[in-house]
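Response to reviewer comment R2.3. The reviewers asked that we include at least one raw input/output pair. We reproduce the pair for 4-hydroxybenzoate polyprenyltransferase, mitochondrial here without editing.
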Amino acid sequence: MAAFYRLSRISRSLRHRNSFLSAVGSNLHSFPPSNPGNNFPHTLRHLHHLVEFSGDNRQRAQFYNISSPIRSIGAYQELLQSSCFCSVAPSEKENESKNLNRDESDRSWIDIYLPEKARPYARLARLQNQIGTWLLAWPCMWSITMAADPGSLPDIKMMMIFGTGALLLRGAGCTINDLLDRDIDTKVARTRLRPIASGVLSPFQGTCFLGFQLLLGLGILLQLNNFSRVLGASSLLLVFSYPLMKRLTFWPQAYLGLTFNWGALLGWAAVNGNLDLSVVLPLYASGVFWTLVYDTIYAHQDKEDDRKVGVKSTALRFGDSTKEWLTGFGIACIGSLALSGFNANLEWPFYPFLGAAAAHLTWQISTVDLSSRADCNRKFLSNKSFGAIVCSGILFGRLLS
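Raw output as returned:
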């Protein structure tokens, strides 16, 4: 009788939980008990099913080795607590959405190694997902490597300083973005679980954390020469104003390009104490065009939500003509890189690598499925490789110069 009582409680809980299919009407099936024995009333044979098994749920039950609810009450309770069952098999769109939210909802190294109180702050800085840090760091590395003396390796210490700075500044940028966009983030599927939007952290806590991040960033900036300090501090205007651009213009991706590629100017200045405009301006422009490519692809993930909440983006601006625009940006990116390398007197190895980078952009633009959130995300993430290809070309071109 005790087992019967427990089983009945589970059945009732299933009917009242929104995450499971209500057990009603003719949709119900029976779970025949295996050897119920004399301790179970005859009516147990006619109990309504615990949950309607779709193909997806049946596979989950088999995975957990469940052969009957009577023999596996403990297993069913474990499944209920973890919300394993669903009413219907997830659609492809739902699976894509889960993949996109994985960095904000699934367990990561943050959940394993950090204290519980520190986890929301780590997620606010996007420490679980470092693609943004790479995209911010690569233009810095391009510039530092290009500024090296002919035949010499780049300044490793300077690259470490800029790598750390990219990590801190990108985290601060994410905090600023989440503070200003907290009302919008609650309406977008991909962002609604972010710490401030979900209410895990208050705006006041986020602001205090931002102050801490900027203080650490100041420590990095003070490692540079005076000219670089002024140049680096001037980028804060772009960093703080970028989140507002999506409310004002259909070109926030261009503004992000101006912000994210500031390191193309700063890296050269940190090494040489000045700016060779014939080198750094084309390099900076190439980064802006590159950002327009990858962030427009990225923006296509949220275009439906953006349209509903009134947020602007190049994805909405270009619409069905997106690939034509991306092709133009890609050509401008590669052309600007070629001009910068030529003016910096890079040797021939730079150009085969530049060709490989052009092929990578061509692959991205020609194969991306702009109607698939998952594919847009995959192509966006691949830009870490693009940055590495360009940096390798600059390195070998400088070593042989």
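Confidence is low (pLDDT under 50) at residues 3-7, 10-90, 92-105. The chain has 21 helices and no strands. Further pairs are available on request from the corresponding author.
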